[in-house]
Model the fold of this input.
Amino acid sequence: MLLAALLLSSSYCMTTKSPIVEFKSVTKSYGEGPLVLDGIDFTAQPGEFISLIGPSGCGKSTLLRLIADLSPITSGSLNIAGSTPESKATELAFVFQEPTLLPWQTVANNVELPQKLRDVPAKERATSRDRALQLVHLVDRGDAYPRQLSGGQKMRVSIARALTLDPKILLLDEPFGALDEMTRERLNEELLSIRDQQSWTAFFVTHSVIEAVFLSNRIFIMSANPGKIAHEVTVDLPRPRTSDTRLSRPYQDLLAEVSKLLRSVEESRS
Amino acid sequence: MRSVLTNILLPAATGAVMIAIWYAIRHGLSEDFKFLLPTPDEIIGSLDANWNILGRAVYNTSQGALLGFGLAIVVSSLLALLMSLSSLVRISLYPYLMILQMTPIIIFAPILILWVGPGLKSVVIITFLICFFPLVVNTTQGLISADRNLVELFKMYRASRWQEIKLLRIPAALPYFFTGLRIAAVLAPIGALVGDYTAGSSAGNGGGLGFQAIIYSSQAKYPALFATAAVTCILGFVFVAVVLSLSWFALHKWHDSYQRTDT
Amino acid sequence: MKAIRLLPLAAAFIAAITVHAEPLKVTVQLDWFAEPEHGGFYQAQAKGYFAEEGLEVTLIPGGPNAFVMPKVATGKADIGQADSTSTLLQQAEGLPVIQFAAVFQDDPSGLLVNANSDIHTFADLEGKTIVARPEWAFLEFLKKKLGLNFTLVPTNFSIEPLLGDKEGVLQGYYIAEPYHVVKAGGKKPRFLGSWEVDFRAYAVLVTSKRFARQHPKELKAFLRAYIKGWRDYLEGDPTGAHALMKAAHPSNTDEFMMASRQLIIDGKLVTGRDANGGPDLIGRLDPDRYAKQIAQLEELEILKKGKVTVETAMTTQYLP
Done:
């Protein structure tokens, strides 16, 4: 037992960074249908923030669901480091497009839900819950019901919920798509500040180039029919990123580059 | 302050006017036809005089309505749960249940009475039948209609089947259940009355309000007939009011159907 | 000259006022399907006696939901047939009707008992279920006079309780139901007659007080024709009446109608079973019998004292 631990830790030290997610020639089709994803190949290191951007039908949401094990891959291999099917539940957290809160529960109970489903005792649940609510600045709304909250607030509750089980991987599927520009910018900044206090790897699907560049260190630009990763852009803007970052030259250049690549991908499909 | 007064005074005044009109109509009727419209005081007097019979009738009808209603809730909930868990059962049964919900099931009352005989048993069965279908259809609908995203969320967190039912499907089904319950609450007294009307007898503790209506009607005791009608309306009203209150308690905090119109 | 030209006009005028006005339309609501119990009506109809008296009579057959009393009280029917004692109770409740002629001197209503049961006397009814019209005064009489307790089920008039192995007790006319039971394959039911316990009711004709006020002459004419009809039906050839009864109620067989008529004749139901019975008694009501009946019901507290008197309940003024 001790020997195994020793071996594991030594192997960890030898490879400076072992990938947390590894896609090898992964394809995906639903039943007898056409290929939704074809030849997906990449590795992600722990702590990375990867955005997926592309036209409709390029399979970016599907890719997220493959990682979350909500859907099986058709061929190829998908590895999530050190995880077994059982451990996946606590290691992955999914933030949907809609806040997906239980309308009949208070904010506090909603945030506690994942822990409740894992039979975590009440006291521990409360601690994680309060911490999560603090991170999203909603501690004083614990007793409110979802219908009393604004769209942005509900989304923050959804994120808080995702964080309570200390996930290794955070999957976000256009979480801020339904919100207005100002709220969106504010939540982007909030998300990054949470990231500073925690240590998850993020996969973020978005339609917004601005969002992708602001948040990520890697952007996958995907093409459709079938879904492929057409281009990859590295974003090496310094962190922490603030509203000032949005005014910097490198940021603007990256916006232009990603937009151009995105357009080329959209044009090529028609 | 003003609006409270208006909210009470206006309806009260209207009520007084309606009663005045009632007396006026009665006064205007020729002697030969006065028996067609007893005055409110005649009705109240008859209510008082016949209270020992009518009281028992109220008890009997309530008993039939409550038992049938309660039984319908229990059986429909169990069947709904079963159908939400097994698509085989649901696909086999649901169409029939939906069709039966849309038909005037009350026509089976005489047939039932033929099989089961008159009395409380048949009243309960008829009430059960009339309440069962809206309940089972609505509750099943509620159990299978949980937000798909929430279902996925639960799947993602590897929730057990039981956890999914207890924490997601049943709460999500509550609004639907209460919709069915509200419908059934209106129907239950009607079912009990029709059951009684068709098959009531003075057996045991006496018949219910429907039975009494027949008796008073054939005996030309018209003030008592009107009194029976009034009592029946009140009974039905109370029944529905209780269910509406339960519905409010369960849902008002979180469900859209209880939005406040002012902020 | 001018006068002569006026003559045709005058003649027409005189003719107009002396010839009968258009015949009065009278509706009669029967209490059951057309059967020999309605012999007086149908024979008068068949033989044209009503027409002779200047009346255009429509006979509306009844059945399970005849609603005779409400119809007569509200004027939807002019004349109805009912039982005298139940009518007394309803008159006590304020129903504005009046009893003005007899159909049967003794109402043949009673309790028909399934022959397969062991109910033989009224005392045996204790604790049993009786299927009957809820307004039947005889039921209250049984409770109060004989101290009986039983369960009442409002009748739907099916003879089903009298068939097979049930303990059925059903209100009925002994001149009709037993025949149908036997025809349906059952055993002839036993009959507990109301007069056996000193409860004597008439079967009567009733009309609303309003109609009586407005058409006294026509009521007299009606009774003349009706009584003539009964006499002819019982003593003469009933073919005419039976043909009409069959048309009104096709399940009437000649065999049934002749048998029922015979029972009426044998039982002296129309002409009276007492010493003073006979053709002259047809249709007659005896105020003394009413006085006795009212006193009996008041004593048993079935009728509230003073609610109904002989004068307010019945009249003989329209009888010939």
